[in-house]
Each structure stands twice: as C-alpha cells, then as structure tokens.
C-alpha cells in the first residue's frame, strides 16, 4: 500500500534555516528526542535519514521558550498539506506541552526543515528541550479543509471540528460555509468515505444515514430538509460513532473524504475515527448552523 508522509514548500526553506534551533544535533527519526542545545538561533545543517513517517527531529534549543527543528520528506506524487504534532518533554520524560505545525502545499518529493517553539509551559519548565514526534497527518492540498482565509474556487469552506467524546460515544461536526457570491443549495446527507493512515479505503465499516443509527440526542438526527445557504451562511452535519471494542480487530480511520452533495469536489478531513469493533458510522443530515 502507498505510504503517505511529509514535506514543505521549498520557498520557505531559506527563512526556516535562519530561524532554526541552536547548534543542531541528530535526534531519533520519526519520534525520537533530540539532544538539548543552547538558544534558538542560526544553526548548522545536519543530515539525517527520515523516519517511517518522513519526519526527523534535527535539533532542540533551550531558553524561556524552547524550540525544535525537524525535517520533513514528502513521498507523494502531488502537493500535500501536512500537520505534525510534536511533544516537549521534561528531563524525566513527562509530557509538558504539544505543538501542531501545519505545512501547506508541499511539493512532491521535497525535503525541508521547520522550526517550532513551545508555548504554555508549566512554571519551572523553561530550558526544557526534549522533543518527540507524536503524530503526522497529511491530506492532498487539492482536498484540504478550509476554515478561513481565501474562499476556495468551489465557493464553500468545509472542515471538521474537534468533536466531543463521552463514555465511548464520539461526535464530530462537519461544517460548511458559503463564502461565495451566490446561493448554495444542499439537501440530504454528505457522502463520507473512510481512509486509513496511508489514505487507502477502509473496509468493514458501514456508513449509515442519520446519527440516530448509532445514538440519539447527538443533534445528528432528523429529516434531511432542503437548504438554501446565502453568502456567509453555514450548515453542519454530525459524524457519530462508538469506540466499543469487543471481539475482533478495532478499526481506526484518521481521514474521511467528504462530498457535500452530488457533483461537489471532495474535501479530506481528519476526524480521527476510532471505531472500535462496531463497524458503524452514522452521518447526520445537513442543517443550518442557526438551527442547532
């Protein structure tokens, strides 16, 4: 199967090299910690082989706001947008804070370097510079979700929220905003296809119309009514599932390709679907945001 991992726009490389961390030292690839150095400034370049996820921690820097430099290598054949989550650790290995870094429109086959800085550290944690990569996610740039900024050519923004989880029940909202100049019409349920870490289709999961197929009272139920969204108006639809594990292998699907309606361009979101062994995902109908 296709391996889907990392890189960044070449145009940013020069700037990133100027803001790198300290005197660099080689860290463990794909999630290992790097040796601490002093300060965040202009550092020497280090050659290191990327890990399985295409990410290598190159160096760290200490100070009131510790930093980390890492490289990303794309193994795709089209531009991808990547989100890397790095965790800053205490000397004892305790997690202190996490940082998400998003690299848009990464060219195929590119290798570049990024620098991140730790914020929201607990008192007494300044100077910490141990880092590990905890998660790497990627989506085709042509299908990247959009929550703000320039309106996409489609005239609508589609994205997923952070969701809610309680007692094994999960609910993630899909949101659509009409950022165009005309009326955008919806009726029914969005089409959803699940994808694994390598962006391959996930088998053995039934996608059901209506959140009530999984649980009631989530807001993802009710009839599918026709909607006419004027510019600036929004709609939402809920994804509902249970993380119940019984007999069999649990299913995890980080990605979902979403078609707002027939003929719409797909958008790939990252709801982190931990479906357990239930084999079911409920998809609610589109509703206007002000009807929630």
TrEMBL record:
<dbReference type="Pfam" id="PF14016">
    <property type="entry name" value="DUF4232"/>
</dbReference>
<keyword id="KW-0732">Signal</keyword>
<dbReference type="InterPro" id="IPR025326">
    <property type="entry name" value="DUF4232"/>
</dbReference>
<protein>
    <recommendedName>
        <fullName>DUF4232 domain-containing protein</fullName>
    </recommendedName>
</protein>
<feature type="domain" description="DUF4232">
    <location>
        <begin position="151"/>
        <end position="286"/>
    </location>
</feature>
<feature type="signal peptide">
    <location>
        <begin position="1"/>
        <end position="22"/>
    </location>
</feature>
């Amino acid at each position: 199967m296709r391996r889907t991992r990392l890189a960044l726009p070449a145009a940013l490389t020069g700037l990133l090299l100027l803001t790198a961390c300290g005197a660099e030292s080689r860290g463990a690839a794909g999630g290992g910690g790097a040796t601490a150095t002093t300060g965040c400034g202009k550092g020497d370049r280090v050659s290191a082989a990327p890990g399985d996820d295409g990410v290598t921690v190159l160096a760290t820097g200490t100070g009131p706001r510790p930093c980390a430099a890492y490289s990303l290598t794309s193994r795709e054949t089209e531009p991808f947008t990547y989100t890397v989550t790095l965790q800053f650790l205490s000397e004892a290995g305790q997690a202190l804070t996490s940082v998400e870094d998003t690299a848009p429109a990464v060219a195929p086959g590119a290798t570049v370097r990024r620098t991140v800085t730790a914020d929201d550290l607990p008192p007494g944690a300044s100077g910490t510079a141990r880092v590990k990569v905890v998660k790497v996610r990627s989506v085709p740039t042509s299908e990247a979700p959009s929550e703000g900024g320039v309106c996409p050519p489609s005239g609508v923004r589609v994205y997923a929220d952070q969701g809610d989880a309680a007692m094994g029940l999960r609910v993630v909202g899909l949101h659509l905003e009409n950022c165009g100049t005309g009326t955008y019409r919806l009726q029914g349920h969005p089409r959803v296809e699940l994808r694994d870490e390598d962006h391959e289709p996930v088998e053995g999961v039934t996608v059901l119309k209506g959140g009530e197929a999984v649980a009631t009272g989530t807001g993802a139920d009710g009839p599918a009514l026709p909607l006419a969204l004027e510019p600036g108006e929004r709609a939402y639809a809920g994804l509902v599932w249970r993380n119940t594990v019984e007999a069999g292998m649990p299913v995890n699907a980080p990605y979902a390709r979403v078609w707002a309606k027939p003929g719409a361009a797909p958008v790939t979101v990252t709801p982190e679907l931990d479906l357990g062994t239930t084999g079911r995902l409920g998809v609610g109908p589109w509703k206007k945001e002000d009807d929630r």
